[in-house]
Amino acid sequence: MKFTPTHEWIRVEGKIGVVGITGYAQKELGEIVHIELPKIGLIVNAGDEVCVLESTKSATDIYSPVSGKIVAVNQALKSTPGLINQSPEAEGWLYRIELSSMKELLSFVSSSP
Asked: Phi and psi dihedrals of 27, rounded to 5?
């Protein structure tokens, strides 16, 4: 698992990256009450806004750590956004992305920021 300075994480399985937010980020946000997930098939660049998380405290943009195509979203979050609070680095994952360049991963750290 690799981490961005803005508290997103990515775990790569082959050419597919699973993306979510860190435990630190979910603690700072508080209780997640709504999420806007990206559309499957959306092509994004590293740094693009792809999701919005709404909590009891605020709304926060989530940025893609890598470039590629969104291939899946965590449908369970639509009815149970609190999964992000319960398990931000496992069951609370946000989306899966087919990476367009593995080289983009070289700039991330392998421990939580």
From this structure: -65, -40
The tokens of 50 are what?
């792809």
Q: Return the minimum-mean-pLDDT range out of 4-8, 42-46, 50-54, 61-65.
A: 4-8
Distance of CA 31 to the CA centre of its chain: 16
Contact 53, 21 (CB under 8 A): yes
CATH class of 2-100: mainly beta
What is the Cα 20 distance to its own chain's centre?
Answer: 3
* Cα–Cα dist 87/14, whole Å: 23
Q: How far is residue 15's CA from residue 61's CA, in Å, rounded to a whole number?
A: 25
